[in-house]
Structure formats: C-alpha cells, structure tokens
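Listing S7. Sequence submitted for prediction.
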Amino acid sequence: MQKNYVASGNMMGALLNANKQKVSGYLDIGEAYPFDMEVKLKQKKQKSARKGMRGQIIDSGAIIDEITGSIGIKNWIAKNIAMLVSGVAVALTAASGTVSATDITLPDDGSWVSLGHRNVSSILISGKAEGTDFEVNPVIGFIRGIGATTGVVSVAYEYAGQGGYKVDIGSAAVIRMALIIDGQNDEDDQPFIAEFDSVVFISKSPLILISDPETDYEKMEFDLVFETLPGKTSPGTINGFAI
C-alpha cells in the first residue's frame, strides 16, 4: 500500500565534549528544518583479467563511506548562535549597582564615551540636564556632551544586573551534540523517534547581525557529520516507521 510522508518534529540536543561525553542536558533547538541525512556508499568492484573477459565485473559490493547531512535552524537563541560561530554561550550573572560619582571626559567633537556599564539609568551630572546638555544611550552605557558640555564631568548613575547569555566567538572549534527528534508523519499522525549519538555541526552560513531590510527571516545553516561511538555499529536509530 502506498504511504505518503510529510515529517514534523521537535529536536533537542545535548552538548558533547572532545571525549563525546554529554556536558549538558538536552536543550530545545526550536524551529529546525529541513533536517536531512545521507548515507554515502563507496562501491567496490572486482574485474576480470581473464582472456575474453578482461575488464568485466565479476563481483561487486559497497561499503559505507560517510554519513552526512544538513540542517537549517531558525530559532535565534544564544546556544544556537554559539554553534554558528564555533563559540560557547556563557550565562551572565553580574549584579546591579550604583555609581555615586565618576569622572568622565566628554570629547568636544560630540563623540560617545563609555560609562563602564550596560543598561544604565538615573544619570546625573551636576548643573546639567539630559537631552539639553548631554545625551545617553542607556542600553550600551554610552554618553556624549551636547554643545558646551565638554571636558571632565562627574557622573552618577545606576546600572541593572545582567541576565541571559553572552556568546564567546571562536572558542570551540568543534561543536558536537547528541540529538533526539520527537517526530511525526503529518499524513497519518504516526509518531517516530530518531536518536543520534554524536553529530558534528559545521557552520556554512555567516552570522547576520544587521539584516537587509528586504530579507526574509534569517536562518543558521549547518553541514552535519554523524559519528559512530566506540562499541556501537551505527551513529543512531530511527524507530516507529510503519511497515
């Protein structure tokens, strides 16, 4: 009986170290499609050298050369971005605080200088008014003088604590993950589970930090290499397909 197939699924991955041991729990990778894999075979041929048969194939076979694939990830979270730039996502835990007074030199050319903290608020300069005498970019913690407000000034401000993650770029040359897919054939709602012990992610797209206004949603694209762990005979399994 003919059976149609349109797959959907939820993908989760656990980071592996150089010894291919899990160093994290399974994380939801989010929207990730298409996800494909290909078993590439290398053909072996034995040809005859006998008179009248020279060059004819008398035996043939095939061996697995490599198992590869690709994936497009649409979910722009820190841990996915870290994979794209061969980096590591590090949790930010800095506490909030108050700076009662610090001397800042405001250039006379109107350029910005850093206060030394991000996400600042309640900025005060004695005898000066924000918006008239000075301007602040509170998110990145930059300040600049307006008009005659130049030279050394004493600034007081508050700054928020830092949460979320930062991504250290280029700090992990090889990104390995164990993957599991909670899948379903949408044609008949038949579930399946795919598990892969060790998958190397090789970035093949740039990190777009400012998109072209005419561009649709950006995605992160990777080539994949599926590795077979010691003591096993395959890199993974797919269970649940109906026969």
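Caption to Listing S7: primary sequence and predicted structure tokens for the chain studied. The longest strand covers residues 57-73. The helical segments are 78-84.
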